[in-house]
Amino acid sequence: MEERSAAVTLHGNPLTLVGAELSVGDSVPDVEVLDNDLNPVKLTSFKGKICVISAVPSLDTPTCDMETRRFNETAGQLGDGVVILTVSTDLPFAQKRWCGAAGVENVVTLSDHREAMFGSAFGVLIKELRLLARSIFVVDRNGNIQYIQHVKELSEEPDYDAVIEAVQKLG
Fold it and tell me: Is the pLDDT higher at 76 or at 63?
């Protein structure tokens, strides 16, 4: 499997990403993750909607918490044709607990804990930590990636305005 050394950092320390790097125009890999009730979910099942896929290291960290809450607020403004997915390697039980405690209802949280299939297929699996690198993928209604944002330093938030602009271009 392909590896990219020093592709991201955590507090300045370089980390390796595993998996091939995706590009704009690529189809969403047909991977399976788990919802909060342990049901398998294929990412391709969201075809027909514009998808914002937000990969985060862990919902139980301050930056991921802020990012997911921010996308939860934004989701309500984007309309029914847009779905926001947050994927992490957190256990589904932890995701469900976190969403309940945070009042997050507009974002679908999905777990890649079992096989890290999402992380490998999207090229965002951190080899040293078995967590996902902070990345955003905006996918059109046909299941093709139209925008990608990789956040180099994991402790920093993404550029939300750029993500929203990418979604609005597809609307």
Answer: 63
Q: How confident is the model at residue 76 (pLDDT cuts 50, 70, 90)?
A: confident
Question: Exposed, middle or buried, 141 (CB in 10 Å: 0-12/13-18/19+)?
Answer: middle
Q: What is the pLDDT of residue 1?
A: 79
64 annotated active-site: yes
- Chain centroid to CA 33: 12
DSSP string of 68-134, one letter each residue:
HHHHHHHHHHH-TTEEEEEEESS-HHHHHHHHHHHT--SEEEEE-TTT-HHHHHHT-EETTTTEE--
- Topology adopted by domain 3-170: Glutaredoxin (3.40.30)
Q: Which of 18, 55, 64, 78 is catalytic?
A: 64
Domain boundaries, the chain: 3-170
For the cut 90, the answer to whether the pLDDT of residue 77 exceeds it is no
